[in-house]
């Protein structure tokens, strides 16, 4: 299934006019998903945690310089406590418990949460009959399936993600809380209860 997932996701780039086909072949390292693609994806997935860790450290540096803001918009120093040692120990304990649980899962039951279809060898000549994405990609799958034009579907998918990224810039209130917005609270709890 991973073979077909990589094929479908990288083929989305072929919808880009003029350069799409060349871009897909460049990412694949050939004319189809092959060993070069596997090496590139493995390298990307190996480097991604280090990139995320560097961005987290940069975020903590900026947070240390400017300080965090209060969601109510009130900046008062009366209730502040130091991050270290109180939250440092709490975060260290939580990270330690999580790492221990992840190590137990990875070392003693590595295939527990995996898809059984991933153990069948990939056959590029036969597409599996029941391909469907995981639940966290179903929104993208629904957008792509609902628009018959390939470029239109890819643009709609990109716009749906861009709309989520633009939400913080649309919010212009000085208060960053939902405490005084009953309509937003109702929408949130109806989504949470769904």
UniProtKB/TrEMBL annotation:
The chain crosses the membrane at residues 12-29, 41-63, 92-113, 151-170. It comes from the Eukaryota. Binds 2 heme groups non-covalently. GO terms for molecular function: metal ion binding; oxidoreductase activity; quinol-cytochrome-c reductase activity. InterPro entries: Cyt_b/b6_C, Cyt_b/b6_C_sf, Cyt_b/b6_N, Cytb/b6-like_sf, Cytochrome_b_C_euk/bac, Di-haem_cyt_TM. Residues 1-72 form the Cytochrome b/b6 N-terminal region profile domain. It is found in: Mitochondrion inner membrane. GO terms for biological process: mitochondrial electron transport, ubiquinol to cytochrome c. It is a multi-pass membrane protein. Keywords: Electron transport, Heme, Iron, Membrane, Metal-binding, Mitochondrion, Mitochondrion inner membrane, Respiratory chain, Transmembrane, Transmembrane helix, Transport, Ubiquinone. The keyword Iron applies. CDD domains: cytochrome_b_C. Its cofactor is heme b. Residues 73-194 form the Cytochrome b/b6 C-terminal region profile domain. GO terms for cellular component: mitochondrial inner membrane. Belongs to the cytochrome b family. The cytochrome bc1 complex contains 3 respiratory subunits (MT-CYB, CYC1 and UQCRFS1), 2 core proteins (UQCRC1 and UQCRC2) and probably 6 low-molecular weight proteins. Component of the ubiquinol-cytochrome c reductase complex (complex III or cytochrome b-c1 complex) that is part of the mitochondrial respiratory chain. The b-c1 complex mediates electron transfer from ubiquinol to cytochrome c. Contributes to the generation of a proton gradient across the mitochondrial membrane that is then used for ATP synthesis. This is Cytochrome b. It comes from Thecadactylus rapicauda.
């Amino acid at each position: 299934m991973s073979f077909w997932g990589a094929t479908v996701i990288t083929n989305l780039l072929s919808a880009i006019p003029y350069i799409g086909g060349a871009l897909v072949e460049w990412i694949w390292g050939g004319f189809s998903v092959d060993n070069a693609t596997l090496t590139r994806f493995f390298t990307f997935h190996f480097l991604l945690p280090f990139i995320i860790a560097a961005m987290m450290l940069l975020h903590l540096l900026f947070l240390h310089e400017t300080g965090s803001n209060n969601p109510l918009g009130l900046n008062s120093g009366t209730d502040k406590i130091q991050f270290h040692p109180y939250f440092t120990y709490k975060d260290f304990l939580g990270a330690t418990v999580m790492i221990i649980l992840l190590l137990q899962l990875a070392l003693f039951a590595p295939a527990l949460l995996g898809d059984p279809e991933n153990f069948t060898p990939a056959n590029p000549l036969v597409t599996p009959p029941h391909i469907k994405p995981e639940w966290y990609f179903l929104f993208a799958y629904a957008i792509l399936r609902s628009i018959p034009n390939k470029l239109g579907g890819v643009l709609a998918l990109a716009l749906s993600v861009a709309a989520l990224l633009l939400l913080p810039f649309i919010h212009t209130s000085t208060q960053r809380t939902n405490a005084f917005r009953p309509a937003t609270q109702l929408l949130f709890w109806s989504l949470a209860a769904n």
